[in-house]
Design goal:
Elements: E1 10-15, H1 17-34, E2 41-45, H2 50-59, E3 65-71, H3 77-80, E4 88-90, E5 100-108, H4 112-123, E6 128-136, E7 152-153, E8 159-160, E9 176-179, H5 181-196
Parallel strand pairs: 2-3, 2-5, 5-6, 6-7
Antiparallel strand pairs: 1-9, 3-4, 8-9
The structure holds 1-O-pyrophosphono-5-O-phosphono-alpha-D-ribofuranose.
The site of 1-O-pyrophosphono-5-O-phosphono-alpha-D-ribofuranose has 16 residues, from strand 5 and helix 4.
């Protein structure tokens, strides 16, 4: 799906399909060199990272193992989350001891997800744990995360596309866009009306 297909819902495009492809290609070239002969494992947290993982894993020139995790996400967690709130919903199906791991993420917001995940994988005995995140809302960080392969730093706006959703929609947009504010404000108002009626 392209921006033109959902134009009435979109305020503006933030990162184009071409910019995403360029970043992923540059990053894949670095990763292919850095992990030559190291039996790299890429780990993605569902659901948002599925597109980024697919694109990055296809762009590298080395064989990689691909694994997924699902962790709990609480309503309102963007403003209230702390590291202790994160729980595993679906764990990795493999042992990470002695493995070189690259966590692939779509976005860093507060940083809690990555902070927790890096520490968890290290505590399980991974040989190394590094991070690639396609987008980074740096102004929203509440904890520091070391990102070896950085993506685009974006402002604190409501973005969708390339894996990122609003209410489970727009993940299949092929670029990153800012949603019109009335899109989510309308829904919030409807929900509030429903709650009070
Ligand atoms: C998003 C994103 C990261 C996390 C980042 O996932 O995919 O995993 O939030 O936020 P943080 O830096 O504040 O921890 P989300 O919880 O929206 O779930 P989803 O990937 O299924 O959409």
């Amino acid at each position: 799906m392209r921006i033109a297909d959902i134009q009435s819902h979109i305020d503006h495009e933030l990162v184009s399909k071409q910019q995403i492809e360029d970043l992923i290609q540059r990053t894949a070239t670095r990763i292919s060199g850095d992990y030559q002969g190291k039996n790299l494992m890429m780990v993605a947290v569902l659901k948002g990272a599925f597109n980024t993982l697919a694109a990055l894993s296809q762009a590298v020139t080395i064989p990689v193992q691909i694994e997924f995790m699902s962790i709990s996400s609480y309503p309102g967690r963007k403003t209230t989350v702390s590291e202790g709130d994160i729980e595993i919903r679906m764990d990795l199906g493999c042992d990470v001891r002695g493995r070189h791991i690259l966590i692939v993420e779509d976005i860093i917001d507060s940083g809690y997800t990555l902070h927790w995940l890096v520490n968890m994988l290290r505590s399980r005995g991974a040989a190394s744990v590094e991070v690639f995140a396609l987008l980074d809302k740096k102004v929203r960080h509440e904890v520091e995360v070391e990102v070896k392969y950085p993506g685009y730093v974006i402002p604190d706006e409501f973005v969708v596309g390339f894996g990122l959703d609003y209410d489970e929609r727009y993940r299949n947009l092929d670029s990153i866009a800012v949603l019109k504010s009335d899109e989510y404000l309308d829904q919030e108002q409807n929900q509030n009306q429903g709650k009070h009626s």
